[in-house]
Amino acid sequence: MLEAIQQSPTAAQPIYPNLMRRLFSMLYEALVLFGVLFVAVLVFMLLRDPSAQGAKIYFQAYIFLVLLWYFTWFWTHGGQTVAMRAWRFRVERIDGQPIRFPQACLRFALGWLSLLSILWALFDRDKQFLHDRLAGTRLVMV
Fold first, then answer.
1. Is a pLDDT exceeding 90 seen at residue 2?
2. How far apart are CA 141 and CA 89, in angstroms?
3. Cα gap 33→142, rounded to integer Å
4. Residue in 71, 68, 97 with CA at minimum distance from that of residue 84
5. Distance from C-alpha of 132 to C-alpha of 135, rounded to nearest angstrom
6. What phi and psi values does residue 43 have, to the nearest 5 degrees?
7. Distance between CA 113 and CA 130 in Å, rounded?
8. To pair with 41 at 20 to 30 A between CA atoms, which of 31, 51, 111, 142?
9. DSSP letter at 79?
10. Terminal-to-terminal C-alpha distance of the chain
11. How many CB atoms lie within 10 A of CB 98?
């Protein structure tokens, strides 16, 4: 009698998080960012008078840089933000390698197209967002 050979999935076949999991992760990320930005705003207000002339542009640039630092640091150091760890997925290059700083910056910049990216994911074969496709990255389950 011949036994059936069971094949296990290969490591080359990634499992992608579904759209709902990604959306809930974005909600979780917003809660984490609330705390990060709260501290960042407090630091800004202690160091600079927010009512001073020209402070608005410095404040906006500062907040943008805080967000850029948060995302790029986590993506380039383990591929996971706090929310991504909780929801058990990470970002990586399409070849499975960790992303580097320039690619993380590109993904961050393209991520500002979030609504368009979410709509894109509805039709993408792997349910990836548009900014992932354009940046050459993907989200995979861990």
1. no
2. 4
3. 23
4. 71
5. 5
6. -60, -45
7. 8
8. 111
9. S
10. 38
11. 15
Give residue 33's pLDDT.
Answer: 97
User: Within 13 Å of residue 76, how many CA atoms lie on the same side as its CB?
Assistant: 15
Residues 6+ positions from 133 with CB-CB distance below 8 Å: 120, 124
Locate 79 and state its tokens. 């591929």
The tokens for 127 are 């349910």
pTM over the 0.85 mark? yes
pLDDT tens, residue by residue, 76-115: 999 999 999 999 999 999 999 999 999 999 999 999 887 8
Q: What's the CA gap between 67 and 50, in Å, rounded?
A: 19
Convert the pLDDT of each residue in 6-59 to its tens digit.
Answer: 444 455 689 999 999 999 999 999 999 999 999 999 999 999 887 888 889 999
